[in-house]
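does this look right to u?? iron/sulfur cluster version
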Amino acid sequence: MGEAVATRVLELLAASADVATVDLTGGAPELNPHFRRLVGRARELGRHVIDRCNLTVLLEPGMEDLPEFFATHAVEVVASLPCYGPENVEKQRGRGVFDKSIEALRRLNALGYGCPDAPLVLNLVYNPVGAFLPPPQAELEARYKDELRRGFGIEFHRLFTLTNMPIKRFAEFLARQGQQEAYASLLVNHFNPSTVPGLMCRSLLSVGWDGSLYDCDFNQMLELPLGAGVRTIWELDAIDAVARRPIATGSHCFGCTAGAGSSCGGALQ
Ligand code: SF4
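got this back:
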């Protein structure tokens, strides 16, 4: 995201009183040169800010002060940690990632992030390492808390379980394993209509690096334009104008509606 897009996003945010939360994502959003300006201005405007953090970025050269920056601006940190042990984390994210993630979590805990009753929110994200649905969120959260506390002295608030969407890299993985059809059937056969009212596309708007608009991050990855017909942030005067809109859907949406459901805030039930 360049300067013009970041500036326009902040203008729209100022003009959109109904937008309560700014959710920054994209692999390592902290490395964007406009990241701190986006956070600072959003907080000045009184909006809650979430940073979707891969944890290892906190150990990158020049990023050492990020935990303090988060704490100063009361940023909620949602951190990816696919397992509480090294094997599955390194299988999914590469060698050395687990130890770095634990070190990053310790730095956040040292500032009060994730500690019981602390106001600085630290949540973790789990997604399955394979072609299956996540286990029940509450049970897995209890296991994570126990394992991370006993093994590493790590505290966090909540665990969000996410279903793997059959798109991009995971779709390629399924194709290599010959599991595409089986996984699609798994999602369809577990369709849960009671997840539909809570689907995240009903309450968020996704802005791409170039200012393009999408109904969610998955649609952005598929380059499926916003269902409302508006294409970019420059066609809007305020985000409120597209708060109630038709949503562009596809077969990948069964990833959000399977079982307990899946959203940026974890299971829907
Ligand atoms: S993938 Fe489909 S159901 Fe899920 S958030 Fe996006 S548009 Fe909504």
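Residues 199-201, 215-216, 218-219, 247, 249, 252-253, 256 surround iron/sulfur cluster (CB under 6 Å). idk if thats expected tbh
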